[in-house]
Amino acid sequence: MDTTNSTLLSVFVLTGLQYPLEWQIPLFLVFLIIYLITTVGNLGLIYLICNDPQLHIPMYLFLGSLAFADAWISSTVTPTMLVNFFTKSQMISLTECMVQFFSFAFSATTECFLLATMAYDRYVAICKPLLYPVIMNNRLCIWLSVSSFVAGIIHSMIHVVSLCRLTFCNSNIIHHFYCDIMPLFKISCTDPTINVLMVFISSGSIQVFSILTVLISYTLVLYTILKKKSVQGMRKAFSTCGSHLLSVSLYYGPLLFMYVRPGSAQVDDQDMMDSLFYTVIIPFLNPIIYSLRNKKVIDSLTKMLRRNI
Questions:
Q1: The CATH homologous superfamily of the domain defined by 11-308
Q2: How much is the pTM?
Q3: DSSP string, 87-145
């Protein structure tokens, strides 16, 4: 479309979640409680890992990094959503929109790589227990963790820079509760085909790589467990890996549905429900999943509470 004679827009309106008016206060309270539990749970997990020497091992270094990514993604999206429950003008500038998307894409991408890294860590721990201290040394663990964050920054920057080629001149209504890239494509006056292709290729590649890493790692883990035929070893392995497998299963489904399917098939309401799941619900569930199913975390928390109480 020719935008020469059109007024370019730099302020957008987020429609937010669609709900009956009488649900406004109950929904606000529900999401506020979820956000508070998410923040306290993830930051508390980081605090435990940092202050308990028994948790200074690779598995918990990655778990602390995952908790940071969860707290980040939740803080990127949920406060804006809470404010918009009671704000008549749900306005956001183009700059703020870009910053919010960058922050979201950074944390989501980082989490994908961290989940893959945690799967590889479990593979080495169970399949090569004698070599585990040598392979997963501090240097490699720090490198893997930092690389996940750097990959998140690079991936999100690529899409933010590519968004700068788009213009917005007709509609400034974003049918979402935060600035995501797909709703921006829908209201662009510039043909976003290249951008959509970039999202499909880059997001698809990252998710396929992460999922394959997880599947291969746990296939080898399962083979090793069954070969040993030790009931105690099976229980320990499933206890260790169960939390991670549950977290991976919950996280990748909505992401694949959102960013790897064809753009024409997208439905706004369904998109928002998927986004709500991996930006609000998953960060809320992860510290619960990893804490309740992890004896060392429970022991560390118990010791800390006893010291303070």
A1: Rhodopsin 7-helix transmembrane proteins (1.20.1070.10)
A2: 0.86
A3: -S--EEEHHHHHHHHHHHHHHHHHHHHHHHHHHHHHHHHHHSTTTHHHHT-HHHHHHHH
